[in-house]
Specification:
By secondary structure, the protein is mainly alpha-helical. The protein has 10 helices and 5 strands, in the order E-E-E-H-H-E-E-H-H-H-H-H-H-H-H. Helix 1 packs across helix 2 and helix 9 (about 190-210) packs across helix 10.
């Protein structure tokens, strides 16, 4: 069963469910900005006072066990709801938390810059640099897959073949081996060296698919696996492993 997309705001201990088109659970948003105990009551009171906000929301049932219909709203609607929320934990905190949640939803890259400014650990900063670079390579890799006829499950197969070729296991298997949960982002838990290796493999795979004019799920997955294995072999040879 498909799980809901989550925007996680670690500073607030908040998890915000999102639809595929980016609308967010109103309950989760309200919980994140101060109404942690009972966002449902806060929403009921708000809609009783300002019934017009119902027009900017839509009931949505997220996939999963025991899910019930939940009001969802886009960013523009959320910005209309924000000033109407009651002040349960202090106006200043609510304003700061609301701004932080909004920045996470927007994917504000300056959040990463702010974290980097507060961190003087050279290893952490090196990891962040590699992670950002690998994100760009990853986007290019998936774009290449799309251009070469990969669809549906093919993306996951190609991604897993990167992991299998480099480390001998799929994403699921590697998470299990490393004691990670299903919700953990595997790449966020990898070392700087591992991220660099994946970045190199995906970049070479993109170039290989273009050179061969590979097409379709099977051919692209096979070529990706071949490239990842060669990267692993080269690494082992150079490091004497």
């Amino acid at each position: 069963m498909t799980k809901p997309i989550l925007t996680i705001v670690p500073e607030l201990g908040a998890k915000i469910r999102r639809t595929e088109d980016g609308r967010c659970s109103v309950y989760d948003l309200i919980r994140a900005v101060g109404q942690k105990k009972n966002p449902y009551t806060a929403w009921d009171r708000l809609t009783a006072t300002y019934p017009e906000v119902l027009a900017i929301c839509e009931d949505w049932k997220f996939k999963g066990a025991r899910q019930r219909k939940t009001p969802v709203v886009n960013l523009q609607g959320w910005l209309q709801i924000l000033p109407l929320l009651p002040g349960a934990m202090g106006k200043k905190y609510r304003e700061e938390a609301a701004q932080l949640v909004t920045r996470y939803i927007q994917g504000d890259v300056t959040l990463a810059a702010e974290v980097a400014d507060r961190n003087d650990n050279p290893e952490d900063l090196k990891w962040l640099e590699k992670r950002v670079k690998s994100k760009n390579t990853r986007n290019n890799f998936t774009a290449t897959l799309a251009q070469h006829g990969v669809v549906d499950r093919g993306y996951a197969d190609c991604t897993n073949n990167v992991y299998v070729g480099l480390y001998g296991g799929t994403a699921k298997q590697l998470k299990q081996q490393r004691g990670l949960t299903k919700k953990d982002n595997l790449r966020d838990k990898m070392t700087t060296s591992e991220i660099s290796q994946i970045d190199f493999a995906e970049d070479l795979a993109s170039r290989r698919l273009k050179k061969l004019d590979a097409h379709g799920n099977q051919q692209c997955a096979e070529e990706t696996l071949s490239v990842a294995k060669k990267v692993a072999e080269l690494t082992a040879e150079l490091l004497g492993e």
